[in-house]
User: Fold this.
Amino acid sequence: MKNSITKNKKQYFKNISIFIFWILVWQSLHLIIGRDIYVPSPFSVLIKLKELLFVPRFWLSVIYSIYRVLVGLLLSIILGIIVAIISSLNKYFHDLIKPFMTIIKSTPVLSFIIIALIWFSSSNVPIFICFLMCFPIIWTNVVEGINQVDVKLLEMAKIYKVKRINILKKIYISSVLPYFTAACITCLGLAWKVGVAAEVLSHPQNSIGSHLYSAKVYLDSTELFAWTLVVILLSLLFEIIFAKIIYKITNKRFSKS
Amino acid sequence: MNIEVKNISKSYDDLKVIIDFNMCFSSNRIHCFFGPSGCGKTTLANILTGVISADSGHVIGKNNKKISYIFQEDRLLPWATVKENILFVLDSFHNKSEAQLLADKYLSMVDLLKFKNHYPHQLSGGMKQRVSIARAFAYGGEILVMDEPFKGLHLGLKKNLMDYIIDNWNHESSFLFFITHDIDEAIYMADDIYIFNGPPLKLKRRVTIDTSREDRRNNKKLETYKKIILEDN
Ligand SMILES: Nc1ncnc2c1ncn2[C@@H]1O[C@H](COP(=O)(O)OP(=O)(O)O)[C@@H](O)[C@H]1O
Ligand SMILES: [Mg+2]
Assistant:
């Protein structure tokens, strides 16, 4: 117990040192280059961020961006799982769908954003793009997870006449869960990246992307960095919350007897 | 009552494991499949029980009997504890409290009650094998298949388990198939020993052991059988 506390402390200390190191690198770059427009100092970025925190529009933009990313993510997760299940049940469907997924994966996201600008209203473009980019990842991983289900366990369950619902819960879902989790973690990061990129080009009313865009127009690098920092923090926050949820789910399953 | 395989064949790619094979097993006996590894014993047992289907041929007399199968591999759910693994097969036939009791009873039989909340990856090979044995017994099939069930177990526990099986399985309508390549196990347990070779699977010889269980426990007359079987190999 005591050991693990000191270990935690050590880890904490290490992380802080790494953080300070990179802030110092950033500050040195700022000093060497000497012009705010290329690399603003970390301190002015932090001050800018603090200012933003007191502007109501900041929060409105953050909330709307979160909303778009979340809706896009949820759509991709739900549809990704459904399509993956159908693909695993039917090989023809799988083979039919596969090239579509490959194409989505290798098409530049900007091509999709531009075509989406033509198809959708500005607020829906980021949702669509989030969905489109995450969907193939969820699909691929869930299909892979279902493929990896151990046939020997299925045979065992069949011989012992285990109910289908239990086979689904205790074999299929348990096997697929790690693949699904990995896909979600990848998607959480990606969704923020492509979602904000779509916002920059579609500039909906309240969005982080629109602020990034106007920062660019006014050559306000400090603000650009501050908003970028917001995106990074949000993305991290999402990942932490998601990890907590998954931990809760798996732990509950593992500890009940 | 009999279970019969009729004209069964099975190949994997180019390997013909079983060709047009016939055999008949009566209930109330312990049938032992004996033979070198790779000759097709597991495949035969799998077809007998319906774990896999034959390419052609029939299995007759299995009807809807409950089957307990101790697989050659442990086949435990890696994400479930020892106890959950046993409860997994009891859910369809017992209510919650019955299942709990059964699971505990058979876990203590294989000496694993203390480990009931462990996960398979925390156990040794022999311990996992014991969980698989407990699962089969707790389930209580009328057909019991044991595919090299005692590998990795020390002699004392192995003897206890063999005696337990001999004393406790329900003779009347039950079938017991026991696969091994350990000759001492075979002679100790079996009523009939089928000596196979292959692939393709061939019945080389059938040896019926007439010595009473009591005599076997006292190690009488077993050496003679051992000689007969070893000569044959
Ligand atoms: N799923 C499989 N795919 C391909 N070959 C297999 C498979 N299962 C068994 N075999 C082959 O069939 C033969 C018989 O296997 P098996 O019945 O497991 O033998 P035994 O149980 O007597 O050791 C072996 O040569 C093995 O390699
Ligand atoms: Mg085998």
In short: Chain A touches chain B through 18 residues (CB under 8 Å). Residues B 12, 15, 17, 37-43, 199 surround adenosine-5'-diphosphate (ligand 1) (CB under 6 Å). The mean pLDDT of chain A is 90. DSSP finds ten helices and no strands in chain A.
